[in-house]
Amino acid sequence: MASEPGNLEAPxxxxxxxxxxxxxxxxxxVMTAGLHHRWRRRAADLxxxxxxxxxxxxxxxxxxxxxxxAGRVRPGGEVVGLDFSEAMLERARQKAPGIRFEAGDAQExxxxxxxxxxxxxxxxARNFADLDRSIAEMKRVVRPGGRVVILEITTPTRSxxxxxxxxxxxxxxxxxxxxxxxxxxxxYLPQSVKRFPSPxxxxxxxxxxxxxEVGWIETAGGIIAIHHGTVPAP
Length: 234
Description:
7-stranded mixed β-sheet, 46% helix, globular
């Protein structure tokens, strides 16, 4: 039996992103009017990284957040972009050949403890099969004093924006997906947003994973939330 939209198994999610890799960037631009680049810049700001630092971008997709971070850590730094979709990674490598992109699972990050000064994820956390385990893994690979940053779509609750978002995500996004050739993938998007934790719950889960100084900012009228937490000293 097929999974419900927004609640796919990991192999189904991987296959979906492999299918849409060729239209992913164009659809992001259309769906956000190009504003997703601004939101990624704000996430990079909250990572608080500078030249010579080493940063991990989890669920990097086609690499836009990794590219933003790379500009912050040069000269002498390194950004590693990790994703489980090879087709998305291939797009990322074409866009930014100077960044290290590799395949991997957010639930079992292939890096030693305290390998990075920050770990980020942009618009990928809602696809994690086990959100709590993935947050714990991001914390594990960041050294004490470093940052974990999660940029994600959220569901506004205040009118009239809440009604606009329902119309946009439930009707127009699947229609755009159909025009792009994959209505199933872009029906998954609004459902995955609906089942993702609220900003308050996500903050609580980050704190439960052991992160300190957890907070978040909302932008775009509450459609986007950017969470941040600090890895405490032992």
